[in-house]
Design brief:
Layout (H helix, E strand, L loop, with lengths): L1 H36 L18 H7 L2 H32 L6 H9 L6 H23 L2 H4 L9 H27 L2 H9 L4 H12 L1 H16 L3 H6 L5 E4 L2 E4 L4 H11 L3 H32 L1
Antiparallel strand pairs: 1-2
Amino acid sequence: MSTKHGKHNTTFILFLLPALFAFSFVIVIPFLLGIYYSFTDWTAMTGTQVNWVGLDNYRIIFQDITFLHSFLATLSYAILNIFFINLVAFGLALLVTNKLKLVGLYRAAFFLPNLIGGIILGYIWQFIFNNAITAFGSASGLAFLEVTFLSNRNLALLAIVVVTTWQMAGYIMMIYVAAIQSAPVELLEASHIDGATYVQRLWHILLPLIAPAFTVSMFLTLVRSFQQFDVNFALTAGGPSGMFMGRALLTTEFLALNIFNTAFSFRELAQGQAKSVIFFLLLTVASLIQVYYNKRKELEM
């Protein structure tokens, strides 16, 4: 019996090895090398010596106003993004779980934007903001629409939120749909018979039942918001310019784009690696806080 059990374990390990090998070479080893390079003056140039500089890269980063602004811009974007994506997704989920004709078509249509790549999506919406909306504003006489939102430092971030909400809401909607469909119908029907209104059934019965779906959805939107790069790069490229603490900088340059510009535009690869390490720690802390808060709310509900 033990010999048979040992053979099964060996088979499982052999099947697992290719995945572990790929994961180690694609994720683990580059991650560890990145941490090492963040303490050096690495430039990725062949033939150049890599020197240990200790915490110098981190000291430069914490004195960098642009990195602080990128963090604040990313935090603002993440809060708005989490709120609007989950609000729209939950609303769509309530819509497509009702007894409607062509409900499958609606679900597919709402999910479809998630299949479009971020770079392509950014350029499509750039055309919409710069050409379609401004043309409509000129034709209708609405002056506030005649100037593209992407040139306004107060509206450019909201424009990115609109695009990413349009892209991700359908994907998050499917999580809520699965949760709503798995909720006990008997409880909802009983409350309806007892005279509870739709809002009361939604707030006091349905929401507590699907609370774990909110934890998962908010975690996914939090991570995607902090990691935002492709739409940010294609739609605004960090622009427009603005003033922050007496210095001109890019107002919608999120953390991922700031790291990219540091490493590949300014050729400061070691500083880019150090920023990536800080970025990883910030995302880890934010994710743990979000999951802890949501889990606690689940118990309270």
